[in-house]
Design brief:
The complex is a heterodimer of chains A (418) and B (186). With 418 residues, chain A is an all-alpha fold. Chain A is built from 18 helices and two strands. Classes of the chains: A mainly alpha (418), B alpha+beta (186). Chains A and B meet through helix 6 and helix 18 of A and helix 1, helix 2 and helix 3 of B.
Chain lengths: 418, 186
């Protein structure tokens, strides 16, 4: 690095725009808690998933036609005629699923280790904003192939806005550009589906900015107190992230090459027909828990409010969780409730996949009530009554056996390298 | 990377370790390059003509309705192809000329398979406009062939550039006579 910085061209640029020092500061020497585990891989994986979506999406737009009479055929054209079109489309459609898997794990990791607590509330909010924008983008992207599920998914989701009193109908007509979902809807969804990912990139930049102010949280949930608690980001976490990326790509490749339609719906290979609704409409898997909450409430407006509320309540999480201790590692009761909550979300997803009848209605209602109870009852009370375990003195203490000093070899070798 | 590792000293003592580390770097770099190329290939290749475009790459065309002295334009791969049933005078004019001083010297016999049928791509070799001269009444240029209105290229009765900025004669596409009057272009 020092040798690189002495290069006259690098110095010429550096004097005018200190980009190399900036990158070194943010990506190479950047102090990262030395005890991060593999759950911390999912942030960088989410960034990579976003890039994959943008790159494949731009290329797909070379071949796609956002017109109601042509859209379905143009997707088939991509699958059959365009060179590697099948690959690009399957990477894009399964990439959306991979992106959500990664982001959901990232979110649950933050919940388990209390990453949303002070001083990282805005970091948490920005992440939730990204999640909401991802949901909007994914929903509109699913409409573009203009199959039966595209069309009726769009119809059901946009009809939710009719639930709002007074402005509901006006708002829905505005969204549609007509009296039903139609060509104007498809056009604007395509435009927004192209726009939103770049806005997500913008929010990601601010998310990283906020992250780099107070640095990463860590499995112990205590602050870094000095250099003995941290490692330089490169090479320690670049390598760790790359290892995780390898696993991620293996799973991704399995989906793309061996089960490309596993997470999709067969009905979406039937061209959109505004006069026939498919017998069983389900959203994409990543919306299922929210869809369950919508169906659990037997009132149109309250159902919609419940569904949106399920995401909105996460914004209040830093204050609903009243415990001073961040990491679940030192919160024995919270830890159990955390896993119960994960189970609850999985149950909601499972219920959402099934038709709303018989016991699914009851299970869906219980799980929906529990979802909100977790945030509104359990978390506020736990902070008051839970007896937490003692926190270690520093990040370095448990790792280094109380020494606090960095082992000379590793530290010294690293210093010289960077 | 590699030389800074050797400079780091304390972690690698023997030359043997160095070689292994170097090998790892090279192997990783090589795999990264192969992986990057494998990813880049579909992202570039998808921009090339797709199967449905390639399926239209050759056409068959019947010349029999074209009278002597008449021209017809057919579309091939989206390009205009000029098919002209030349008059004996035009054939003579195309042959009785010294081609040495032409910009793109080519005898008429190299440009036609049968002298009465001149088949060529009707795109000016300058900047891609379509020359005039197919329809009666259109300007045919100083050599009674074709004239490109964009930048004033004059082509003769063999489609050769005689005056103007175009660098080459009008291109002759690949074609075969399937029968006396039916050709397959492409």
């Amino acid at each position: 690095m020092e040798k690189f910085m002495q290069n006259p061209i690098v110095q010429w640029v550096e004097y005018r725009l200190p980009v190399f020092a900036f990158m070194n500061h943010q990506l190479v020497d950047y102090p990262t808690p030395r005890n991060l585990n593999y759950w911390w891989n999912f942030g960088s994986l989410a960034g990579i998933a976003l890039v994959i979506q943008i790159v494949t999406g731009i290329v797909l737009a070379f071949h796609y036609t956002p017109q109601a009479d042509l859209a379905f055929a143009s997707v088939e054209h991509i699958m059959r005629n365009v060179n590697y079109g099948w690959l690009l489309r399957y990477v894009h459609s399964n990439g959306a699923s991979m992106f959500f898997i990664v982001v959901f794990i990232h979110l649950f990791r933050g919940m388990y280790y209390g990453s949303y607590k002070a001083p990282r509330e805005i970091l948490w909010w920005l992440g939730l904003v990204i999640l909401l924008m991802m949901m909007a983008t994914a929903f509109m992207g699913y409409v573009l192939p203009w199959g039966q599920m595209s069309y009726w998914g769009a119809t059901v989701i946009t009809n939710m806005f009719t639930a709002f009193p007074l402005v509901g109908d006006w708002l829905t007509t505005l969204l549609w550009g007509g009296f039903v979902v139609g060509n104007p809807t498809l056009n604007r969804f395509f435009s927004l589906h192209y726009l939103l990912p770049f806005m997500i990139v913008g929010v990601v930049v601010v998310h990283l900015w906020a992250l780099h102010v107070h640095k990463s949280n860590n499995p112990l949930g205590i602050d870094m107190k000095g250099p003995q608690d941290s490692l330089p980001f490169h090479p320690y976490y670049t390598i760790k992230d790359m290892y995780g990326l390898g696993i991620f790509l293996l799973v991704f490749a399995y989906l793309v090459f061996f089960a490309p339609n596993m997470l999709g719906e067969a009905d979406n290979y039937i061209p959109a027909n505004p006069l026939v609704t498919p017998p069983h409409i389900v959203p994409e898997w990543y919306f299922l828990p929210f869809y369950s909450i919508l169906r659990a409430i037997p009132d149109k407006l309250l159902g919609v409010i419940g569904m949106f509320g399920a995401t909105m309540i996460l914004f209040a999480l830093p204050w609903l969780d009243t415990s001073k201790v961040r990491s679940a590692k030192f919160r024995p009761i919270f830890k159990q409730f955390f896993w119960l909550f994960v189970l609850d979300v999985l149950v909601l997803g499972w219920v959402g996949k099934n038709p709303p009848e018989g016991m699914f209605i009851i299970i869906g209602r219980v799980a929906s009530v529990y979802y909100f109870a977790h945030f509104l009852v359990i978390l506020p009370l736990l902070g008051k009554f839970e007896k937490t375990c003692p926190l270690p003195e520093s990040i370095g203490t448990p790792v280094l056996g109380g020494g606090g000093e960095m082992p000379s070899g590793a530290a010294a070798a690293k210093r010289e390298k960077s | 990377m590699t030389d800074s590792t050797s400079a780091a000293g304390p972690t690698c003592v023997h030359g043997e370790d160095e070689t292994r580390r170097d090998f790892l770097y090279l192997a990783t770099g090589a795999m990264t390059a192969i992986g990057a190329a494998a990813i880049a290939w579909p992202l570039v290749q998808n921009m090339n003509p797709s199967a449905d475009v390639l399926a239209l790459s050759s056409i068959e065309f019947d010349l029999s309705p074209i009278e002597v002295g008449q021209s017809v334009t057919v579309s091939w791969r989206g390009k205009p192809v000029f098919a002209r049933h030349r008059t004996p005078e035009e054939i003579t004019a195309a042959n009785d000329v010294d081609i040495k001083n032409f910009r793109d010297p080519e005898p008429d016999s190299d440009r036609v398979q049968k002298p009465e049928w001149l088949i060529m791509v009707g795109i000016c070799t300058h900047l891609g406009c379509i020359p005039l001269g197919q329809k009666s009444g259109e300007p045919k240029g100083n050599f009674d062939g074709w004239f490109c209105p964009c930048h004033g290229s004059h082509y003769d009765t063999s489609g050769r550039i005689r005056v103007g900025p175009a660098p080459r004669n009008l291109d002759v596409p690949e074609y075969v006579f399937l029968s006396d009057t039916v050709i397959k272009i492409g």
